[in-house]
Amino acid sequence: MNTAKLDTGYVAENGWLYVPRPAYWGAWILAALYNLCRDVFFAPMHALLVYNAAYFGVWSLLGLAAIPLMRRFPLRLHWRSWLFHGVAAALFVQADVTVGLWLGDRLMGRAGSATWADIALRAFRECFNLGLMTYAGLFAIVQVSAMRAHARQRELQLAEQQTMLVRAQLDNLKAQLQPHFLFNTLHAIGSLMHYDLATADRVLKRLGDVLRLALRDSGRQEVTLAEELELVSAYVEIERIRFENRLAVEWLVPDALQACRIPPFVLQPLVENAIKHGVAPYADGGDITIRAYRADDGLVLEVENKGRAAAGGAGASRRPGMGVGLANIRGRLEALYGAGQERAAALDLVNTENGALARVTLPGSAAGNIV
């Protein structure tokens, strides 16, 4: 895991060990105090202080060279890896105990005429086991740190891949949705041109408004409810021109919810579906109600259609449709907010007495800014 250079308050760089300098030096001081307390009844306190300070002081300096080596060459199952770390451990430990003993003798005034070979042999006999345990402890800490860093890297990579996948899914779904809406409207314009050219021209102008608003929201994963309502309002104007007095729309959206964030193009397909099943089949048309309200800590969006013919009458379409638009909404909600969770976003279609109701439920963390 190659990261940017860490702050100078840390012992190392490039992600090999995230230890603040005070913690690093403090750990060696604690190790020295522990060793001192263990031997306090077996040697004079002054000698213990001097030799422990020399021993662990040298280790703290050698550790700055040993830790990058441990990270660069992690322990593997291959015999060469074990041989490498065995030799490295022997060299580091022998260097520490020899230099530490030599420094301790000098500080205690026991230098004498001993040669480096004599000091190294004495250090091997008296301190090598302790040095080996110290090296093993340091090595274990470094390996655990490396595994945790690797696990974090894998988690970040998986999260990044998941985000890229979700974005690709959303882009694909939006690419399906916008042509679907456009083709439906152009088909309506084509039909109008055969018997009412002026009305077709008005619809075409309103379509330009809708496309302008849709392009404004392209590339965005969320928009405000106010922005979505602006687009839906432009679309409703198109349908009002088509159906004239056969379509009535009621807006029940509190001003306090206008700033809530929702997926773009989530209401327009619901309104389109409501008109298709609750207005178009009836000779007298129908009524559409668009609602937004709070539920628990989330946001609920509803589009309800009520046909003006008797329930179940001729031409009635009682079954809520699940065409491209609604299937698209469901897919985007699952991609954005997850599926199968207790408080996941949901799209529900319900038959009512004289029509149908489509309900989109967004959890509070998704809707956001609910006052």
TrEMBL record:
<dbReference type="InterPro" id="IPR050640">
    <property type="entry name" value="Bact_2-comp_sensor_kinase"/>
</dbReference>
<feature type="domain" description="Histidine kinase/HSP90-like ATPase">
    <location>
        <begin position="266"/>
        <end position="362"/>
    </location>
</feature>
<protein>
    <submittedName>
        <fullName>Uncharacterized protein</fullName>
    </submittedName>
</protein>
<dbReference type="GO" id="GO:0016020">
    <property type="term" value="C:membrane"/>
</dbReference>
<dbReference type="InterPro" id="IPR036890">
    <property type="entry name" value="HATPase_C_sf"/>
</dbReference>
<feature type="transmembrane region" description="Helical">
    <location>
        <begin position="82"/>
        <end position="103"/>
    </location>
</feature>
<dbReference type="GO" id="GO:0000155">
    <property type="term" value="F:phosphorelay sensor kinase activity"/>
</dbReference>
<dbReference type="InterPro" id="IPR010559">
    <property type="entry name" value="Sig_transdc_His_kin_internal"/>
</dbReference>
<dbReference type="Pfam" id="PF06580">
    <property type="entry name" value="His_kinase"/>
</dbReference>
<dbReference type="Pfam" id="PF02518">
    <property type="entry name" value="HATPase_c"/>
</dbReference>
<keyword id="KW-0812">Transmembrane</keyword>
<keyword id="KW-0472">Membrane</keyword>
<feature type="domain" description="Signal transduction histidine kinase internal region">
    <location>
        <begin position="168"/>
        <end position="247"/>
    </location>
</feature>
<feature type="transmembrane region" description="Helical">
    <location>
        <begin position="123"/>
        <end position="144"/>
    </location>
</feature>
<dbReference type="InterPro" id="IPR003594">
    <property type="entry name" value="HATPase_dom"/>
</dbReference>
<keyword id="KW-1133">Transmembrane helix</keyword>
<feature type="transmembrane region" description="Helical">
    <location>
        <begin position="48"/>
        <end position="70"/>
    </location>
</feature>
